[in-house]
Amino acid sequence: MMAPTTTPTHSSVSTLSPLPLSAYNPFTLHPFSTPKLFFPFIFWHHVITKHTMPTPHCFLTFSFLLLSCHLLKGQKDTDFGQAIDRKLLGLKKKEKLSHFKFYWHDLVSGRNPTSVSVVPPTLKLNTTTAFGLVNMIDNPLTLGPELSSKLVGKAQGFYASASQSEINLLMAMNLAFSEGKYNGSTITILGRNCVFHKVREMPVIGGSGLFRFARGYAEARTNWFDYKTGDATVEYNVYVMHY
């Protein structure tokens, strides 16, 4: 008597069926959040759990996904900006707050002025505020209010009259220090200076050397002003956050 023939059931034949479309959506996956990590895992997990060889359809899908990941990686590598470890720039310490006090001397008269007009005001405007005036400066910074006091640096940049209704200056200058450990380091100030106000506040927008990544503000108070010559001495108190 011949043994009856049996038709293989679904449980005795293993097939690799395509994954549902949602399985290929990187935004619906957990715990993986990127295609680079998720897709290889899904593919080989499906192969291992089914104990069979993948179909050509899955091979093509997997190859396409690997190519996409490679292209994405190449795009990231060619970016001109990237995050780096802050320690590479020596930013290992915590920020500290420093206070600097010195005197700024604006000398527009005499044989060797430190403040020179490079753009005169337009006469057609008929203004009393010298609107449009631009002065380049290389003003000395001293410890005391006297010009003969110890020199600690120079204020290099320019100021410009930026108001038609009052004497209001746009200040753009680097405080280039030459004293002690700050020699060669600079603090950059860019702000509004209403010269006849008792106290003027201007922001510190950066710096170099020991003042890399600096931020803070400066307070200016007029110490002395000569109406005849235009010379002035201004007390500066600068508060800087830096590393």
TrEMBL record:
Places the protein is found: Secreted, Extracellular space, Apoplast
GO cellular component term, pick one: apoplast
What the entry lists under InterPro entries is as follows: Allene_oxi_cyc_Dirigent, Dirigent
Q: Which GO terms describe its biological process?
A: phenylpropanoid biosynthetic process
UniProt entry keywords in alphabetical sequence: Apoplast, Secreted
A Pfam family (short name) is: Dirigent
Q: What is the protein's major site of localization? A: secreted
Family, according to the entry, reads as follows: Belongs to the plant dirigent protein family.
The job of this chain, per UniProt, is described as: Dirigent proteins impart stereoselectivity on the phenoxy radical-coupling reaction, yielding optically active lignans from two molecules of coniferyl alcohol in the biosynthesis of lignans, flavonolignans, and alkaloids and thus plays a central role in plant secondary metabolism.
What does the annotation say about its assembly with partners? Homodimer.
Q: What is this protein called?
A: Dirigent protein
Its taxonomic placement starts with:
Eukaryota, Viridiplantae, Streptophyta, Embryophyta, Tracheophyta
